[in-house]
Automatic annotation (TrEMBL):
Signal sequence, start to end: none
GO cellular component terms, semicolon-separated: periplasmic space
NCBIfam families linked to this entry: TAT_signal_seq
This protein's UniProt keywords: Periplasm, Signal, Transport
One MF annotation (Gene Ontology) recorded for this entry: polyamine binding
Subcellular location: Periplasm
One Pfam entry name: TAT_signal
CDD domains: PBP2_PotD_PotF_like (cd13590)
Protein name: Spermidine/putrescine ABC transporter substrate-binding protein
PROSITE patterns registered for this protein in UniProt: PROKAR_LIPOPROTEIN, TAT
Amino acid sequence: MAASINKQDARTSRRQFLKTSAATIAASALSSCGWRLAEVKSNPRMQGDSDLLYIYTWAGYTDQDLLDRFYDETGIKVVADVFDSNESMLARVQAGGGGAYSIIYPSDYMVQKMESLGLLTELDHSLILGLDDLFPEFQDPIYDPGNVYSVPISWGTTGLIYNSKLLPTAPTDWEYLWENKNLISKRLTLANDVREVMGCALRKLGYSYNSTNVESIREAYQELLILRPAIASFTTDGWRSQILVEDLLIAMCYSSDAAEIKPENEDLEYITPRSGSSLWTDTLVIPKNAPNPDGAYQWINFMLQPDIAAEIVERLSFATPSREAYRRLSEELKEDPTLFPPESIIEKCESLVPLGKYEEVYDEYWTKLRSV
């Protein structure tokens, strides 16, 4: 990424893997959006079941209201399957599962990898409405210049969520974990993600998240070995319930997850480390051999509607790349540093990029670290 998500209900993590899929058939009242998706120019050469759209996405990226509204506007029923990591998604696509989907939600660096493997369709921009409304940095992203293969749908940072009532001092940077490893011992979790975990150690040492210097990568591993006894587990979503019941003091997490869970406990705070972190963008792509590419373009246009994008920020806690959607947000949301950190922090963050043969070096150290 899907089950329906309600902010008053127990919530599903952005990166949590669900073993079931969710679909929508019911209709809801159509909100005025200025134009109808069904009227958008379509390509007569596109083939497939026009009444059914399969998407492969992160958990928490859709809810019943969103799927119902799309059905209302287009008459297309959506079936959403979810994945827990870019790597597991890629493995399924490469194993042949990708042909079942017309929309997939890879993160920035994975767009590059999927394109290099010949898995993506080059987008026809004449069929897409709203690309010119994206903030400039999202119109020509480093991972996909000119948005040839992908459309950004959300973005955020990776940082630390912590219980301010239980920690005597607030963390400001990654080094806090090492300096306070005895205090937070076994009440700390790191993400179940090799690039994020190795990246935070690299950043602590002053190196790039995307380092290809073998010695720097080894140093980062050595730093993590020092911290390893304090780490309760590597989990991308399990921290949520644990931090709410105060079993955990601090956890590495995605900003969108933090924004979603903070209202459940007034003592929870989130920081993007001041030395910098990963800056992720999740996107929409159309895979090769998509069974319903026409429906895929309608989904892309639907998600780019400013009113839809603004509702997603408010309801699902994702930062939007749309200028008009951002303008529609309340001042409270615009000023929320969890969703929209200050530019001084953003400037120090990095987008992850594929590392080619060096990914094997990262994976080797990651395996060793988790086996200790």
